[in-house]
Amino acid sequence: MIVNEVFWDRMGRPPLASHPAVALGGQGVPGAASGIPAGGTTADVIGVTPAATWDTQPSMFMLAEQRQRLQDAAIGERGASAAAADPYGGGAPSTQYEMWVPAELSDTLTTLLTRDLASALDADVQVQVSRNDRASYGDDPFLVTKLVVTGIAVLVLLPSDSSTSLERSG
User: Fold this and answer.
1) What residue ranges in the chain does DSSP mark as E strands?
2) In this structure, what are the phi and psi dihedrals at residue 40, rounded to the nearest 5 degrees?
3) How far are the Cα atoms of 87, 129, 143, 155, 156 from residue 147, in angstroms, in the given order?
4) 74 CB neighbour count, 10 Å cutoff
5) Which of 1, 4, 11, 104 fits 43 for a cystine, CB–CB 3.0-4.6 Å?
6) pTM, entire model
7) Over the stretch 86-132, which tens digit does the pLDDT of each residue have?
8) Which pLDDT band holds residue 14 (cuts at 50, 70, 90)?
9) Is the pLDDT of residue 7 over 80?
10) Number of other CB atoms surrounding residue 3 within 10 Å
11) 79 conformational bin, left if phi > 0, alpha if psi -120 to 50, beta if neither
């Protein structure tokens, strides 16, 4: 799995070459020296993503088959009802898929993906397709720069004293 820097900090920043493992859905890592009983499953950390300054919560990304193993382990320990709950107390588990597409195709793909995914999945699965990029909110990342340049241009082009410009012309 891939974790953010907050998660990695809480792990003690182990070298990735040491193949650090994380216990998921249980109390401890199987075979660890801590002696904490295992349970659930483990996942190896293979990468770390940078965390923004405002990002104070640990997060992780895992493949769907890893998530399935976690869910299967929870079912084996706590019964079928465990599959309906997140082992970390965050409600029912959910899967999120992300795609990066050219902006000019986003409207067409939103319609097509919603239709195709909804028809391919069970009726009780909710499909929501949306854009999460800055352009979808109408923000202009260069607005401040444009305003500063325009302001400087106006100041440069304005005459500094109207009487001086009249005296020169007369």
Assistant:
1) 2-4, 21-24, 41-44, 47-49, 60-61
2) 65, -140
3) 50, 34, 6, 12, 14
4) 25
5) 1
6) 0.45
7) 555 455 556 677 777 787 888 888 888 888 888 888 777 778 887 77
8) very high
9) yes
10) 24
11) left
CB 46 within 8 A of CB 2: yes
Q: Is 8 exposed, middle or buried (0-12, 13-18, 19+ CB in 10 A)?
A: buried
The ranges assigned to domains in the chain are 1-96, 101-170
Provide the CA 162 distance to its chain's centre, in angstroms. Answer: 56
Angstrom distances, CA of residue 95 to CA of 27, 49, 109, 120, 153: 23, 19, 19, 15, 51
Taking the C-alpha atoms of residue 67 and residue 62, their distance in angstroms, rounded to an integer, is 7
**Cβ–Cβ < 8 Å for 60, 2:** yes
